[in-house]
Design a protein that fits this description.
By secondary structure, this protein is α+β, with helices and mostly antiparallel strands. The chain is built from four helices and ten strands; from the N terminus they run E-E-H-H-E-E-E-E-E-E-E-E-H-H. The protein has one domain: Jelly Rolls (Sandwich). The strands form three sheets. A four-stranded antiparallel β-sheet has the order 3-10-5-8. It is globular.
């Protein structure tokens, strides 16, 4: 059996993802298997996961390294393969508010797949954290080559955004009720 040597791909997307990335067929097979366990990709068939696997990018972060920075342009989403990361909000007065800690199989930044808007919060590795990145240009290419698969992914992003909006509105209503009761 002859195996092809790994190819080194140099990619510089922005400050979030400047790294030498290694990609080979074995890694692709493992990636699509990992994606099957991530809720974001639950609606995809095995064949669709095999199509998405090769366009995912791996990256490791050391403790306290910023994965995404609040205010930076959003270029895509990240899936935590191992390790953990803190979601932090920097306030106007210079303080930092801890919003959440994310762990294995959790993801963030999916809204960037659609809009590329500035990041709403920073995400910082707590420990060595291995991630998969899925970027907007990759999704746009996927939509061009496989519109049905691309639309399934876009639909999933809209479902997640709708769920978060509903949750946020519920929180807002609860806070408003509490404020009214204090009057």
């Amino acid at each position: 059996m002859v195996t092809e040597p790994a190819q080194k791909i140099k990619m510089a997307t922005d400050e979030e993802w400047v790294a030498d990335l290694w990609h080979d067929r074995q890694q692709t097979r493992e990636v699509h298997e990992v994606l099957a366990d991530v809720g974001f990709f639950e609606a995809l068939t095995d064949e669709e996961l095999r199509q998405v696997g090769p366009i995912m990018h791996t990256r490791s972060f050391v403790p306290h390294e910023t994965i995404v920075r609040q205010g930076a342009p959003g270029v895509g989403m990240y899936i935590i393969l191992s390790g953990s990361a803190d979601v932090q909000l920097e306030t106007a007065d210079g303080n930092t508010i801890h919003l959440a800690t994310l762990g294995e199989q959790q993801f963030f930044g999916e809204m960037s797949l659609l809009d590329g808007a500035a990041r709403a919060a920073s995400v910082v590795a707590v420990e060595r954290t291995d991630t998969l990145g899925f970027f907007r240009p990759d999704l746009m290419g996927l939509i061009d080559h496989s519109p049905q698969l691309g639309s399934k992914i876009v639909w999933k992003v809209t479902e997640i955004m709708a769920g978060r909006l509903t949750e946020t509105l519920g929180d807002y209503r609860q806070v408003m009720q509490q404020l009214r009761s204090l009057e």
